[in-house]
Amino acid sequence: xxxxxxxxxxxxxxxxxxxxxxxxxxxxxxxxxxLSLAREIHRRKGFTVTIAxxxxxxxxxxxxxxxxIKFAELSxxxxxxxxxxxxxxxxxxxxxxxxxxxxxxxRLEAPFRQFLSEIVEKEGKPPLCIISDVFLGWAVGVAExxxxxxxxxxxxxxxxxxxxxxxxxxxxxxKTESEEFTLPGFPERCRFHISHLHRFVRMADGTDSWSRxxxxxxxxxxxxxxCLCNTVEEIEPLGLECLRKFMKIPVWPIGPLLxxxxxxxxxxxxxxxxxxRAGKKPGMSMEKCLEWLDSQKPNSVLYxxxxxxxxxxxxxxxxxxxxxxxxxxxxxWVIRPPLGFDxxxxxxxxxxPEGFEQRTTEKNQGLLVKNWAPQLEILSHKSTGxxxxxxxxxSVMESLSQGVPIIxxxxxxxxxxxxxxxxxEMGVSVELTRGxxxxxxxxxxxxxxxxxxxxxxKGGEMRKKAAEIAERIAAATNDEEExxxxxxxxxxxxxxxxxxxxxxxxxxx
Length: 509
Ligand code: UDP
What we know:
Layout: E1 2-3, E2 19-23, H1 28-45, E3 48-53, H2 55-64, E4 70-73, H3 95-104, H4 109-123, E5 129-133, H5 139-145, E6 149-154, H6 158-170, E7 180-181, E8 192-193, H7 199-203, H8 209-221, E9 226-229, H9 237-247, E10 251-253, H10 260-263, H11 286-294, E11 301-305, H12 314-327, E12 331-335, H13 356-362, E13 366-370, H14 375-379, E14 384-389, H15 393-401, E15 406-408, H16 415-426, E16 429-431, H17 442-453, H18 457-476, H19 488-508
Parallel strand pairs: 2-3, 2-5, 3-4, 5-6, 6-9, 9-10, 11-12, 11-14, 12-13, 14-15, 15-16
Antiparallel strand pairs: 1-4, 7-8
This protein binds uridine-5'-diphosphate (UDP).
């Protein structure tokens, strides 16, 4: 464990010399919003912000962060984790392996404690607060013992966070014979179905490895001083109301944590947003993607991507390809090896229908991007008209901030709950299918994407609603004017800082 950049000398009483320490879960979908939040706190408050994580994750973060954010490496021994020696991140792990890395995250407690002691020694006081991932609830005890407080940060939306927490804590499907059930924390009308549950939750009984990790971590996180949520007050009224009642602590919706140029909808230029992301190389140059998008009509392109760590089965891939080709709609599809194959391996053309790549290339219908695409540049381009997404929350926020409607194919984590909310509460999405084992044929793919890409009808309505959500997101993140025009997310960040400063005064007296 090494403190990479020693914090500046403390000047008691000067708020710009406060120090906040952040502890993300080791997954790209978490590192990206943690880094954005760190930047936002530093930019708006002038605080020193240190992100603590394992060496490889710090390497990713450092490759995109400027010098304004500090990093602390926490050692993460390789022995006996049921993982590859270089596995420090969920990237390229199967869902079955992810529980091992999640469970192993508890081993960061000792080096993290040691790191905080070093801060106390150097600065003469503990950090103003710890901002820890909702999955790292052990940080609550660490913060308390060091004389500070823990604020839990959920990188997901309010609805999805609540559904995820409540399902794991209550396992309601175990208490009924019915396939449909209500979920503590949600109103009666929001019924959940067994198919919303990933097989790990379905099988969970409190003694399995996921329950043994998640139940205590979530319960501990509920003991935090408050909760930062990567959402917007005005777009998730139901989710936030229910989450606040359930958690019984202040919830500050400070999202979406996206580059401000994206939120202000400045036209994209190659690499504009990319440098803000967590250091991954795109499978096709940004210039080429943007040039191709420039040659397409407004709102005509379908973007297809399943996030940073998911893929679909080989048979699903073939059906998706046949639906895309049959629809004639221009597309950009981020492809990686199908489930069951090494994601780090080469993509083989046999996983797609014979001649698919050649035909769609010759007709200039689509771009296949291997493994990783410049997603923000694509979503913010005027030619992009809809997004086939696994409904990971970052992807959802990125899409909605640009007014791009979604075709959901949720797979794991809280994605099915996000998808349910997008369909039922926001009306900006249709669900193509759900889960990894679902039945879906090329004809159905073609029907759904044609419907959503249509200018009028259902697709038009979804696009209109997505545009309204984009406006609310832009208003919530408006930091140009003080007073009444100050966006709710900007205000929430101010409220969070005022609350922790007040709390620190209380602890010290
Ligand atoms: N992402 C990207 N290019 C890709 C795939 C993903 O830039 O080809 C980024 C995407 O913009 C988002 C993150 O990776 O910020 C994925 O987070 P999300 O919450 O959507 O899904 P997860 O990967 O956590 O399942």
